[in-house]
């Protein structure tokens, strides 16, 4: 971890957190709520706990991805790795769970799409800022 740019990790986590606000807000809020069976007007816990927990988990994911990439990854490689991790590992893992849980393809596309872009953003930030 000594060679990892912690500021870049923090920015990567913040970028994914902001992406989530847009993705699960104006872009797909209603579709996601409908597919997930969530009432959009009823919070699922205290907002500070939900958003705080989400940011901490984004921070952990960004830090682990930074370690995976190494201290100075080339930009194209880091973005490509982010797309591969997001789509090939995270989204497919969600897909397995969603198949067994009987979740819809639409929900998988929304969640898998977010996580694919999340890791691509991590790769972008970590590839640009060593």
Automatic annotation (TrEMBL):
Official protein name in the record: DUF1761 domain-containing protein
Listed A to Z, the keywords are: Membrane, Transmembrane, Transmembrane helix
Q: Membrane-spanning residues where?
A: 6-27, 48-69, 75-100, 107-129
Species source reads: Pseudoxanthomonas kaohsiungensis
Q: Has the keyword Coiled coil been applied to this entry?
A: no
Q: Which Pfam families match?
A: DUF1761
- Alphabetized InterPro entries for the sequence: DUF1761
